[in-house]
Specification:
This protein is an alpha+beta fold and about 425 residues long. The protein has nine helices and 14 strands. The structure holds zinc ion.
Length: about 425
């Protein structure tokens, strides 16, 4: 195969940008603080669910669907006066309002087709609440002040840079954490590399680069799936809420956490390597969410190929393509690089040699063979090189960057679309 040489020219301007960054630390609460945090998280969950139910009822009654934060925020003081739920008063007000903001965001994402319809929150599942203000960070003494909780010690492992914008408290398996979101002005660095690369996302190989290198599939879920199924069965056999059931439940959660950690670790390493070595990365603009949805179909009409596709979709979700892309985006931006999304049209069926486009070119998931000129190559590599070409074409005709949200933000982990 002939080598494809692409020149990538970037203007050498130093600009400044806002970098949002989150710092997460474990906190060391007293028994009383622990109880309060559980209560506050519970109150937020209650308010979230009550607001969602209220909204659903209105919808069912044929009233307006539009979500209004202001309307719900105005209901909050009325709920607190209801004697049956007056315990809401004991929780700090602002986290309760923030929860309504979260619900608003969930609705916006739903209407923008970025997420499923908001779901009710379950107890013990991602307990958290957020303070938009009122906190005090005392880094010298490794402690943080939070309204209605007081001073909390935290495991101070790194310096927090920037202005604190909000603080989220979350609990997981008995441990509590603060996530401190900051904002600061930084100079956009010039990327040390001028390399440009295209990426094809796949099943057999997690990611294939147009330079021929590739990342093996993650498969962490597959390996641990059996253990998880076994643990879940064991839990279901126990009498609910008995001591043995609680032990079995802890085991299930442990396996879930292990799978999540392995996945995160893998994705962080892969995206760090790629973003450090390349100034521009082309990637297919696949709607991962739509791929997973098409198999399950809608409630009325289940998908046609549910069985055939569910395995593939599971693998897609397992490997966290969505998260991969999100990380690449912000890490590239941090390094002064850029992510360019290209339309996925024909990237897997265009011959590199003669340009012939026909789906028969792709013999199987792994093999490409042109019916016109006989050119043969690994199908993922062909895809990656086509993505690279498309990315380059995109840059050439529109040098007003950034194609994707190269915002330099590190929002909270976007697990919504890839939740296991
Ligand atoms: Zn050909």
């Amino acid at each position: 195969m002939s080598n494809i040489v692409v020149f990538f020219h970037r203007p050498n301007i130093m600009e400044s940008m806002k970098r949002l960054q989150a710092y997460k630390f474990q906190i060391l609460p007293s028994g009383e603080q622990r109880r309060d945090m559980r209560r506050f998280a519970g109150a937020c969950r209650f308010v979230f669910n009550k607001a969602l139910a209220w909204q659903n009822e209105r919808y069912a009654a044929g009233k307006t669907v539009k979500f209004s934060y202001t309307t719900l925020a105005n209901l909050l003081p009325l709920w607190k006066q209801d004697p049956a739920i007056s315990w809401l008063k004991e929780s700090p007000s602002q986290p309760l309002q923030q929860t309504l903001k979260d619900l608003e965001r969930a609705y916006l994402n739903f209407f923008a087709k970025r997420a499923d319809f908001p779901r009710f929150k379950k107890k013990g599942h991602a307990d958290s609440f957020r303070y938009p203000q009122g906190y005090k960070l005392d880094q010298a003494n490794s402690r943080i002040f939070l309204p209605k909780l007081g001073w909390l010690r935290y495991r101070n492992s790194r310096e927090v840079l920037g202005v604190v914008k909000n603080v989220t408290v979350s609990g997981k398996q008995g441990k509590w954490f603060v996530s401190i979101q900051t904002e600061r002005e930084i100079e956009t660095p010039a990327h040390p590399s001028t390399a440009i690369v295209g990426i094809d996302m796949g099943i057999a190989r997690f990611a294939t680069l147009s330079d021929g290198s590739y990342f093996a599939p993650l498969n962490s879920f597959k390996h641990q799936e059996k253990a998880l199924v076994k643990a879940q069965r064991a839990m279901n056999r126990k009498q609910k809420f008995s001591n043995n059931w609680k032990k079995a439940k802890a085991n299930v959660q442990l396996i879930h956490a292990r799978i999540g950690n392995a996945r995160r670790d893998y994705l962080h390493k892969a995206t760090a390597t790629i973003s450090q070595n390349h100034a521009m990365v082309g990637i297919e603009d696949l709607q991962v969410r739509n791929m997973s949805r098409s198999a399950s179909g809608t409630t009325g009409t289940p998908g046609k190929n549910v069985r055939a596709k569910s395995g593939l979709n599971k693998a897609i979700l397992d490997q966290g393509w969505f998260e991969f892309r999100r990380q690449l985006d912000y890490k590239l931006a941090w390094n002064g690089g850029q992510l360019v999304a290209v339309p996925p049209r024909n990237t897997s069926r265009t011959c590199l040699c003669c340009g012939h486009v026909v789906k028969e070119n792709r013999l199987s998931q792994s093999r490409f063979e042109c019916v016109e000129c006989g050119f043969e190559e690994n199908a993922d590599l062909v895809g990656a090189i086509n993505v690279l070409r498309a990315g380059h074409a995109r840059l050439a005709c529109a040098d007003t960057s950034p194609a994707v949200g190269a915002s330099g933000q590190e929002p909270t982990e976007a697990t919504q679309a890839i939740a296991a």
